Amino acid sequence: MNEQSVNEEKRSKIPHTYAIIFIIIILATVASYFVPAGQFDRVEVDGKTLVVAGSYETIESNPVSFFDMFKAIPQGMSKGATIIFYIFLVGGAFGIIRETGTIEAGINKVVRKLERREKLLIPFTMFVFSIAGATTGMSEESIIFVPIGIAIARAIGYDAITGTAMISLGAASGFIGGMMNPFTVGVAQSMAELQLFSGIGFRFVVYIFILALAIFYVMRYAAKVKKDPTKSIVYELELKAKQQKEQQDPNTLPVFNIRHALVLLIIVGGLGLNMYGVFKWEWYLTELTASFIIIGFAAGIIGGLRINKMFDSFVDGMKLVAFGALIVGFARAILVVLENGLIIDTMINSLAALIGSLPGTLNAVGMFFVQVVTNFFIPSGSGQAATTMPIMVPLADLLGIERQVAVLAFQYGDGVTNSIIPTSAALMGYLAVAGIPYDRWVKFVWKLIAGWLVITTIALIVAVMIGVK
């Protein structure tokens, strides 16, 4: 049995994400019969719906019926429609961009330029992929580059772990930083009624620490392997690869040309326009979606795609994000059940009492670790946002924490452990392509994950102290 089959067998033992969410919907329905109903008073302040602290009171129960439990699913889809279509259409736009070959060609050009510059290869490659992770939420999309990364790493005396890490951990660093990630930070901030991509300065500073630690970690390991190949965590794999001469040809990716350069210019200019629109023209999801569609179509035209191919790519792009897009509506069904059963405020009140018992600055840390645990079961960032933010936002209000901090707790809780949990589709994809056993990867990466947890925990404490908005 090959490594990919082993990884698939491991994953098959883990409940499907949708199954987990459906189980939660059932539990929420059952809870409506036993958990006391209650509610807070809410007021509108500066366009935000705020919970009034100390206003919680028990009310008459309203259990959710069996049929109403299933009605909650289409109702959840309806309530999450704006976010769902945002994810679909942005995914479609990126599908067109991917079809032009610009991303593959650009990264291939950069990596090959650095092929014989060992000291620059790892940090620069990780930096490039981190930018993609921070702005487009790149994760599974970077799997295609793993064989190339491994081939180049082996060519200069490193191993498969190094080649995989500089691709996957680079993208992960940017994903955690999430300065302009539309699929995690964008979704969470819209649910928290915050300006999109607000708090970008604080996120950028934390991103620098996250990326710097990852680069140091990978470079230190790579140097150790280059000095003594037997120190490689996958030494047996390296011997086998050397015997079989299994190296991916870097020439399999497209060559960067003038069309790619123009498409890249459109992407950079479009992202810059989006940032300007968000902060100067108060653009929100609808405007950003329209902008991304324009960017995608313009990239397709400049990239030389025929009209049918462009829309095929648009549909393919939407297919790739269908899992994450529809899970938003499915997860919103949990909220519908909790609201209809009148028990969501009871849960918020109980969580507030539990987390509120922690010292002031540690409230956010408590929220963070709730998100870390949730991420194991719901590794989809947009799905986790839809599941947890409706609870975490009013909880932040009750605890006197800025909503931006609640988004940060979600963002870091969702991102940090994606590089180690077996429920992460991207991680298992990386390992399957690289042929790296999961237990060997855990042995390599666990100290970095611990370091990231420390950095993000400190970042949240600082965020509370300075009141990041």
From TrEMBL:
Its main location: membrane. The keyword Transmembrane helix applies. InterPro entries: C4_dicarb_anaerob_car-like (IPR018385), DASS-Related_Transporters (IPR051679). It comes from the Bacteria. The chain crosses the membrane at residues 17-35, 80-99, 120-137, 168-188, 200-219, 261-279, 285-308, 320-338, 350-370, 420-438, 444-468. It holds the Pfam family DcuC. Keywords: Cell membrane, Membrane, Transmembrane, Transmembrane helix. Signal peptide: none annotated. It is found in: Cell membrane. It is a multi-pass membrane protein. PANTHER family: ARGININE REPRESSOR, BASIC AMINO ACID ANTIPORTER YFCC-RELATED. This is AbgT family transporter. The lineage of its organism: Bacteria, Bacillati, Bacillota, Bacilli, Bacillales.
